[in-house]
Design a protein that fits this description.
Largest sheet: 7 strands, antiparallel
Structural class: alpha+beta
Protein name: SRPBCC family protein
Shape: globular
Distance between the termini: 41 Å
Organism: Streptomyces sp. R11
Helix content: 25-40%
Strand order of the largest sheet: 1-7-6-5-4-3-2
InterPro entries: Polyketide_cyclase/dehydratase, START-like_dom_sf
Length: about 150
């Protein structure tokens, strides 16, 4: 994969609280950069949200509107959510991790994937943009949690 970027931030809330908000697809557009719409298009085999569930996102990225579908590949609440694109213009994998920390939760986002073929030369620009966005995502996640409890 041509892009592999990550960001982390200590958020002063317990992992269960951070993960409950961040892993709920209904909040995607509230804290994830560029997301205009998110909808659950397929439930997990056991129902609800979990492994096998699919979320369709519509985003604005680098001046373009794009749509893609993420399938939950791994779900271990409140520790891990791993999603893989099964439809969309760019192959990608997004991993959200939430671990206990002395000051709350160490929240991490990792994005792997990126352009192939003729778009490969744009990978460094895309990587910088994605790294910047996921850093803002974590900042906004903390801000949203603070607003909800304050």
């Amino acid at each position: 994969m041509t892009i592999d970027v990550s960001a982390e931030r200590v958020i002063p809330f317990p992992p269960e609280q951070v993960a409950a908000y961040a892993m709920d697809w209904r909040h995607d557009r509230d804290w994830t950069q560029g997301i205009r719409r998110a909808e659950l298009t397929r439930e997990a085999d056991e129902g609800g949200f979990g492994v096998g569930a699919e979320v369709k996102r519509t985003a604005h990225f680098l001046g373009r509107h794009i749509g893609y579908v993420l399938r939950v590949a791994s779900y271990d609440f409140p520790r891990l959510l791993d999603m893989v694109a099964v439809a969309g213009p760019v192959p990608m994998q997004i991993t959200y991790a939430f671990d206990p920390h002395a000051d709350g939760t160490l929240a991490r986002i990792r994005v792997r994937g990126g352009p192939g073929g003729v778009y490969r030369p744009a990978a460094p620009i895309m990587a910088r943009h994605v790294r910047h966005n996921i850093g803002k995502d974590l900042r906004d996640l903390e801000r949203r949690l603070t607003e909800r409890t304050g």
